[in-house]
Fold:
Amino acid sequence: MSFENLNIEIENQLAVLTINRPSALNALNSLTMQELSHGLDMLIGDSKVKVIVITGAGDKAFVAGADIKEFLDLDIEKARILGETGHKNVFDKIENSPKPVIAAIGGFALGGGLELALACHIRLASENAKMGLPEVTLGLIPGYGGTQRLANIIGKGRAMQAIFTAEFYSAQRAYEMGLVNQVVSGDLLLETAKKMAEKIIGNSSTAIAKAIEAINLCNQPEKGFKKEIEGFASLFDTHDFKEGTLAFVEKRKPNFT
Ligand code: CO8
Structure:
């Protein structure tokens, strides 16, 4: 499948999905959202892919937000549909992906762009990254999951401050707040994401999928503990568990599926 605003490269079980609309700082217009939805389906369904890295083309932006110019034609109903579709087809799909999704953030990650990174399981940022949710400067609020995911990741008080002030945070500040997992120099961003992906790929993808399901329920501990117990138990009947434990006993590296 070929895309206009996305590039996908797959190598050694790692897929790098690049949002490629640099003339608009990779802003998420409706075509890009549709392509993201299809691209994610493709990668999540591809047994040759174990980890997905999402990044933005060029060194100026990861994604500078939803496409503001497309907002001009929206009314209440159209905006609701846009929000619901985006949540379901892109943001929830990333969060619930059984394969780890890493955001490699270079430059601006604003509004819907930061929300995209927040939906990812892990965030790496280059030193030049600038992150924020400036929706209130447009008379809006974050609409692609930012009110919930930012609060879950950095805490309610800090999320309130970020959203009310619309401040842009440097990569270093974002790291201090727990918004990003690691900061690296720009030229090492993709390489660092790939190295992290390699480590993940060496582990059991069956087990990691179960871990994602349980961790995603961390704000609902009753359900989360139940999911953890079920997931833990179900793994005892898998090739990866048998292989992992046998490899330990035989003092060799496991050969996971
Ligand atoms: N939408 C559309 N076009 C954009 C966007 C955007 N979000 N961001 C940048 N662009 C375009 C600019 O219009 C410009 O295009 P052109 O050359 O045709 O004028 C080009 O990208 C380059 O941008 P600038 O010239 O502005 O570059 P600067 O370096 O001067 O500034 C900034 C960079 C600070 C990032 C600036 O571009 C900016 O402020 N962009 C908008 C940031 C923003 O407010 N983002 C949040 C948007 S709202 C949102 O994301 C809501 C998410 C929830 C949606 C839910 C839907 C239901």
User: Anything to note?
Assistant: The chain is about 45% helix and 15% strand.
